[in-house]
Design a protein that fits this description.
By secondary structure, the chain is α/β, with parallel strands linked by helices. Helix content is 45%, strand content 22%.
Amino acid sequence: MKHKQATARLHQPLDDAYVNSDQCARVLLRRTDLYPVYISPNFRTMLGVDPQRYIDDVHVLLRHIPAEEQPNLRRAVKAWDRTGKLSQLCAYDMPGDQPVRKHLRITTTPVGGGERYLVEFIDVTEERQAIERARAERDRALQIVEGRSSFMSQMSHEIRTPLNGIKGIIELARDHSDERALLLDDLQRADELSAYLLSLINDVLDMSRLNSGHVELEALPFDMRLVARELQSMFEKQAQDAQIAYRVEMDGCDDVFLIGDRMRLNQVIVNFISNALKFTDAGGSVTITIREMYRNEHTANYLIRVRDTGKGMDPRYISRIFLPFEQEDRTIARRYGGTGLGMAITDALVDLMGGKIVVDTEPGKGSDFAAYVPFKLADAKQVEQLEQEGETLETRSDESGTPTEYKFAGKRFLLAEDNDLNAMIASTMLEDLDVAVDRADDGPVVVDMFEASEPDAYDAILMDIQMPTFNGWEATRRIRALERPDAQTVPIIALSANNYVEDARESRKAGMNGHAGKPIEIAELKAQLAAATAESALSSRR
């Protein structure tokens, strides 16, 4: 009796500790028959098994260890010498209708001169999960490094190919300097390669900005009907020349005045259409459907579908189609062109818009690319603003006529450009259009030159953004702050290799009238100057 009381007093502190522990349960087994002579009070809580059931069947716990792990456990027990400690990690499925998997470290230690075994069931689930998370992070990091390495290797190849071509063509042009027809052909091929290289670089920059989260979407009102009309006129001639039936249709679009990034939406749809036309043979068709699916109080959800009857794809390739440089057939780039980044950019843009892309395709039967995109609804005030700006279907004038009117001849421009080669190219292009050009090579210089000039001496200022002392935005702010009548009205157009939404917004914020990309496209510059001149004329009348 005294012995039992002493044993109870000895076990009481341990029992109290185990009652409050959910990390470790213990049993003491008799070596001869593995009969449990002691079971800690938290046994049921931690392992989900009634202690009496364990006493009746000491192997009951084994049935909750996954079958695939049991052979390893048995081999470890068989190889154990019964003198040292045996420690084994294993999974354990808690009993119940919806089993919860734990991870246990089961440690068996001979005690009492080897007459008994102390078995500890230690819950290492959190530790195991932490290890698995660390391994997953490591694997992801390795995958990213491997992906970047592969991307850079592919980029090196993609960039070197047109560069080598341009270099070779320049050598040919030198040899053909006395043969005008061959020289012009060389220049045409060099121009095509440089256009491809510029497209590739722009796509790479887009991908980089999208992956780093630096792309911002505009949230401005627009008329979806104008988007449809522009898509019709943009590709109609190309499709006609390729003998492809092409049409753009709107279906059930009750809410056409939306809020979103029209330029980026166009980029997505144009990419779909370009691929559809590229992979459709003469006699086929490409159909663009713009449909309002459903709406709530503030949002309209649109489907934009591009369906073609072209070559189609193996459906197994769909999972890879939105990865950079992934192409179903390695001959596609050579046969059809393209940078291999368009669909990756498209997928990232649609995701940024809160939408998703669904692809249905079959070899020989064409492809169906559908983007589901939500848009906020424009309010009455925003619709009125669009009408005043001529940006609705009813107020937009017919665009099928002549290009934007802007007469270069006889104008005088102030060009701010710190790079000598860029300045030479821009000046030559403008002088060929009968424009007189004065050049400033830094921010303070362009401000000083404008301030020192006679009023209305310059018809426009073309402002580089990146300059040594201070940039074009700061130069514009200082010009606009000058106390002379033309400081507020002279058209100022930004010229920048960074032609993104955020850059154009910053240019407007600084007081510029427009933002054009580099290298200069005369048609784009003409449109920007025409709009800026009209804007400045309106400002001068106020």
